[in-house]
Design brief:
Length: about 900
């Protein structure tokens, strides 16, 4: 690096001479600037050490160290001839030596190790020349060593490239001591870890310390890295790897060989290839062992058959997903043609596994088995496979194209038709979100939107069911591009599809809601009985989320409280929603109280609204929140949603959403007429990982309802939805500055068992409904480094089976009382870490295991004061006595 040139302006004294003190100051400045800008020099010999350690939460590491000697000589044009000699492997697990490392015989002695050349220009490495037969692992290590030769004597920031990637480098220079920190390192095409739900991320720190002698000779270099895999959701899920490379000066005398590159090759009988800072090979790729599908099912038959909804089932599922990419067509054909393991619950879980990790071959084999285009088709099998595809965190284009073709015609089975329609936009949106750099994203997204619009236009004018299916599917493609289409549909269909339109608008990120969208929400909310009450509640939620601090809009929102003809349930929902916002917005509470006082509504008669509708959220675990909306019509649940939210850095992501709906049931408990002319119906709507599944219809029409009532069909706990769901599956190749590539992976899966029970007595005018939501969860995180001579890794597993029970009790005989109870049973969390250290080609293999168990006691959640009053009323009637339960 050339010396910095600093321009100084001196002011002459009255005699025209420069003062002595000024001359002295100028000389000191000149010396400081010259020293700071001088070329960094290297000695002739350095001791070399490089270590890699793996840590779990217990902070007791495993790992290895390489030691050796680096000899240098000067060549022409600023090049250095380097030779890495006397390499030796030491392992960490032994405590026999003072620093915890013990030397071990390894294959490193067998690797081709030749001299190499580092081409420097102004303390920047331009090229590295390596022998054409150099071992790839040693080639990477040597390029990592060359990175240490990039040293700038300045206090400034630069963009540099080394084996960590292209980094922003900050230099701090204090004379003979230089600190170098690297941030934002990235390789072109190298992806970041993108956890959909659990906030898994890699936190990286890279520092380098250089000590120079007074003559600018490099005396000592230490480069440290730390990479931590951690969850923003749960602090216990945390593992890390650290690396350190160190050079210490042994001999300051360096040979000056006045030779160019061609002469070096001739003298050393070696042929060099030119290299940049790029890896010769991805040495850390680890293949999962291959297993046949029939063998996997046989080995896990008990878990598959009996343990749905448990962490054991989720753990088995993750193992199956790892193996699925190695399943062959022959494997699948052998399994599907066998009768031994063809029980329905086994086949459905096999389809979950294959759909979570399909290949073109296995996808085609499954589609052939399902015969999905036939009229006489096993709908449950088709549903399970299509659900797995729609929830797959890595959707693939060949499957999306296949489903576009499948969805061109309307399947004769109504349930399967709805599943296909919902799957296509879900996979399109997921693909565009997962692959933001794909140049064809806009075309694919538009194709998905056109798929829904074209089929919607083909529906007959009076075919409301057809229109509803395609309109409902817009919730699975919540891209801002759909806004204009949804607003246009409002003008076409008006109130007929207003619930579906508002639901789709609500799912789009609020930052994209335009004035036109919010104006529509305001229109629907304030329109009294013109629009469906569910649409009005959705609109209210949208306004409360975005316009709560706008005084004019707030006054409009509150205006419904002044009108006696407005639904008491909407008023009740509004007041409870506002109460939930008071905690974070004290000013809002003052504004609402002022409005109530000014409009003479600040009294018991006005605020005792007597509605049952409610909304609330409760924390049920660290980083987990339960939120619910219950809309009541004439004392009967019209629409209810329970969301399981995961909180990451203040942001909530909905992992699971359970919705219940009913229409036309008011006549069973009240003389009031139902607000709509819709047929008698009830069902359940599920949304998993922001993907809506087709509705599960409990009954449709009075005949089906009465058949259920008198037959007691649902009087025992009955599974409504069971599935294995892949929540996360991400693997990242992390370049290390020392010249290795670490593989960091994270997987999570759920085994879901949603069951329900419904008891209704028309004679006693009582009803009980139980929704039992149980999900076995399994998490796996791993950091591994696999070299030809040594392997080290650290892994964590976390298993839990959280449950939530929602019980509603209704007495519609002597007055109306409804009590909601939300309970969480005891929860056990098992956390295990494994650390492995293995010298390849030897008997040395160490595996350390650590187990932690966390117990969380069960609890019941307080909902709101109105619900407490209803529960107390039923308790006084002996409703909860053991003999009446």
């Amino acid at each position: 690096m050339p010396p910095h040139r600093t321009k100084h302006i001196y002011h002459a004294s009255s005699t025209g001479k420069i003062s002595a003190s000024m001359l002295k100051l100028s000389f000191l400045i000149f010396l400081a600037v010259t020293a700071a800008g001088g070329e960094v020099r290297f000695g002739g010999s350095y001791s070399f050490s490089q270590n890699v350690l793996m840590f779990d939460h217990g902070m007791v590491p495993v790992g290895f160290k390489l030691t050796g000697q680096l000899n240098l000589a000067n060549l022409n044009n600023g090049a250095l001839l380097a030779e890495l000699k006397d390499l030796q492997l030491l392992v960490k697990s032994s405590q026999e030596s003072q620093d915890g490392y013990t030397s071990h015989v390894s294959k490193i002695d067998q690797l081709v190790n030749k001299p190499f050349v580092i081409q420097l220009s102004q303390n920047e490495v331009k090229k590295v020349y390596l022998a054409i037969d150099e071992d790839p692992t040693l080639a990477n290590i040597k390029k990592g060593l060359a990175s240490l030769f990039q040293i700038r004597q300045t206090n400034d920031k630069f963009e540099e490239k080394d084996m960590s990637g292209v980094c922003q480098v900050d230099y701090k220079n204090t004379g003979n001591h230089i600190l170098k920190s690297k941030t934002g390192c990235h390789w072109r095409g190298n992806k970041l870890m993108k956890s959909r739900l659990w906030g898994m991320k890699i936190d990286s720190k890279r520092f380098e310390e250089i000590v120079l002698t007074k003559g600018n000779l490099v005396d000592h270099v230490v480069a440290d890295e730390e990479h931590t895999l951690l969850s923003a959701w749960n602090k216990i899920m945390r593992i890390k790897t650290t690396t350190q490379t160190e050079l210490k000066l042994k001999d300051s005398t360096i040979l000056d060989k006045k030779m160019d590159l061609s002469q070096v090759q001739k003298d050393l009988s070696v042929t060099f290839n030119e290299h940049n800072f790029e890896f010769n090979t991805n040495e850390s790729v680890q293949e999962h062992p291959k297993i046949k599908l029939t063998s996997f099912v046989k080995n896990n038959k008990r878990t598959i058959t009996n343990d749905i909804g448990t962490s054991e089932s989720a753990q088995m599922f993750l193992q199956g997903v790892k193996a699925a990419s190695k399943f062959t067509v022959a494997d699948l054909n052998a399994y599907f043609s066998s009768k031994k393991y063809k029980k329905k619950e086994i086949v459905e879980q096999v389809l979950d596994i294959i759909g979570s990790k399909p290949t073109p071959e296995t996808h085609n084999a499954v589609m052939k088995f399902l015969e999905i285009e036939n009229e006489d088709v096993e709908v449950d099998y088709c549903d399970r496979y299509l659900w797995a595809l729609s929830l797959n965190p890595h959707p693939q284009l060949f499957i999306i194209n296949d489903l576009f073709e499948l969805g061109e015609s309307r399947h004769s089975n109504a349930k399967l038709w709805q599943t296909i329609v919902l799957t296509v936009p879900a996979m399109v949106y997921s693909y565009t979100q997962k692959n933001p750099d794909d140049a064809e994203n806009d075309k694919l997204l538009q194709r998905g939107i056109d798929f829904l619009i074209n089929h919607l236009n083909r529906c007959e004018d009076e075919d409301f069911d057809c229109q509803k299916v395609y309109m409902r599917a817009f919730v699975n493609i919540p891209d801002p591009k759909t806004l204009s289409y949804l607003l246009q549909f409002k003008k076409i269909f008006n109130k007929r599809l207003i619930v579906e339109i508002m639901s789709a608008l609500q799912k789009i990120d609020a930052k994209h809601w335009t004035k036109e969208v919010l104006d529509l929400a305001e229109e629907v909310y304030l329109a009294n009985s013109t629009y469906d009450s569910t649409a009005r509640i959705i609109s209210l939620d949208m306004l409360l989320k975005t316009k709560i601090n706008d005084n004019a809009t707030l006054m409009k929102i509150l205006s419904v409280l002044k009108h006696n003809d407005v639904s008491k349930e909407l008023k009740q929902y509004l007041m409870i929603s506002l109460e939930g916002l008071y905690e974070k917005n004290e000013g809002l509470k003052k504004k609402v109280n002022t409005f109530l006082r000014d409009n003479r509504r600040n009294n018991y008669d006005s605020q005792a609204l007597s509605g049952f509708s409610t909304t609330f959220h409760r924390t049920f675990m660290d980083g987990g929140r339960l939120s619910t909306v219950q809309e009541i019509s004439n004392s009967i649940l019209k629409s209810g949603v329970v969301n399981v939210d995961i909180l990451n850095e203040g942001q909530a992501s909905t992992a699971f959403s359970l919705g219940l709906y009913s229409k036309g049931l008011s006549s069973f408990v009240s003389s009031a007429e139902d607000e709509s002319d819709d047929a008698l119906t009830a069902g359940m709507q599920l949304r998993v990982m922001n993907v809506s599944l087709r509705p599960f219809v409990f009954f449709d029409g009075n005949g089906e309802l009465m058949s259920h009532v008198f037959a007691g069909t649902a009087s025992t706990l009955t599974p409504a939805y069971q599935a294995l769901v892949l929540l996360d599956d991400d693997t990242v190749a992390l370049p290390l500055g020392i010249g290795h590539i670490a593989q960091i992976s994270f997987m999570s899966g759920a085994s879901v068992d949603l069951s329900g029970q419904n008891k209704l007595s028309l004679w006693y005018k009582t009803g009980n409904t139980l929704v039992q939501n149980k999900a076995g969860l399994a998490f796996e995180g791993k950091i591994s480094l696999n070299l030809p001579f040594v392997k080290t890794e650290v892994e964590f597993n976390l298993f839990a089976t959280p449950e939530l029970h929602l019980l509603s009790s209704l007495n519609f005989g002597d007055g109306i009382a409804m009590c909601l109870e939300l309970d969480q049973p005891d929860l056990t969390v098992r956390y295990t870490t494994y650390k492995v250290e293995q010298v390849m080609g030897s008997k040395h293999k160490v595996k350390k295991t650590s187990n932690t168990t966390i117990q969380a006691p069960g609890r019941s959640f307080a909902l709101n004061s109105m619900n407490n009053a209803m529960c107390n009323a039923l308790a006084k009637q002996g409703w909860f006595d053991e003999e009446n339960s």
